[in-house]
Amino acid sequence: MNKKSLLVLVTLLAGAAAAHAGSYTGAGCGVGAMLMKGQKGNGMIGAAAFTNGSFCNSFSITTETMGCTADGVVKNEKKLEVYAAANLQKLSKEMAQGGGEYLAGLSKLMGVKEAQKEAFFRLAQQRYEKILPSAATDSAAMIKNLRAEMASDPALSIL
Fold first, then answer.
1. What's the CA dihedral at 65, 68, 72, 78 to 10 degrees?
2. pLDDT tens, 49-83?
3. DSSP-based three-state secondary structure for 37
4. Of 23, 55, 73, which one is at a domain's C-terminal end?
5. Confidence (pTM)
6. Does residue 159 lie within any of the structural domains?
7. 48: Cβ contacts below 8 Å, ≥ 6 apart
8. Is residue 118 part of a domain?
9. Do the beta carbons of residue 1 and residue 18 sit within 8 Å?
10. Could you tell me how far CA 99 lies from the centroid of its own chain?
11. Buried residues in 118-131 as b, exposed as e (16+ CB within 10 A)
């Protein structure tokens, strides 16, 4: 492979990686995360991290404000958002199949009890088209749609 072909290949791969990363919105917790909330892309995440580093983020962690907990761990909702964003393709596949380790992880983060896990898997499979209506559905929309479907299911509506 010549240098020009290699350069084109590297550029295409870098562009694909950047496009995929652009859908990730998790900026953690703290002042930066609150200022950049809802923004997408690596630039916004970097700006949030810079802001958190510039301003004392320990206040947010100590007082358990701005999405932080005292142990420095992001609250469960942020964990869910980050997990769903990082694993959306795998979750989509497992929802269509009606189970799997990534879907089991999602169920835990959503508060599904062990006794309800099979009902959760069944719901994800049976209502797949409503949860992920198109290939353009992002992780935040998927979570919102999944919660709406869970709310209408007698076995899962108590969550």
1. 170
2. 555 555 555 555 445 555 665 554 556 788 899 99
3. coil
4. 73
5. 0.56
6. no
7. 27, 28, 30, 32, 33, 35, 36
8. yes
9. no
10. 18
11. ebbbebbbebbeeb
